[in-house]
Design a protein that fits this description.
The chain is α/β, with parallel strands linked by helices. The chain is built from 5 helices and 4 strands. It has a 4-stranded parallel sheet, with helices on one face.
């Protein structure tokens, strides 16, 4: 379910109606059509947690610190990563070590060539401390 600010009342209603059905989880994706805002935590999905008592997975625009903050604040139970995982095959390790993320190249997401999915660099030991 894509979280769009103007659709929040509808999304809250849908989540409230789904809650009694004992669904395993809901995965909310913050709309991100550009790179704008990727350094900060998403905003539209923050107030939807109150409508869903079960497992809530958040996605869209999170980086290590904002993902951790969202979980600590109770806004979700897990955070999924897509674009950053494409560019960082070792993504789970990077936030733990305080390492910077490789920037992703949106132009390579839809395929058409070999660039993009398999040629991003893996974190080297020296980079982990710098």
């Amino acid at each position: 379910m894509r979280a769009v600010p103007s659709a929040r009342p509808r999304q809250g209603h849908v989540l409230s109606r789904l809650a009694p059905l004992n669904i395993a989880y809901v995965h909310m994706i913050e709309a991100r059509d550009t790179d704008a805002g990727e350094a900060g935590a998403p905003l539209a999905i923050h107030d939807l947690r109150r409508f869903w008592p079960g497992t809530l997975i958040l996605a869209g625009g999170f980086v290590g610190p904002s993902a951790d903050a969202a979980i600590r604040a109770g806004q979700g139970d897990a955070v999924a990563f897509g674009r950053h995982f494409i560019a960082n095959p070792d993504l789970p390790r990077r936030p733990q070590l305080g390492a910077a993320l490789n920037p992703y190249n949106r132009a390579t997401f839809a395929g058409g060539g070999v660039a993009g999915y398999t040629d991003y660099p893996v974190l080297q030991s020296a980079e982990a401390v710098g």
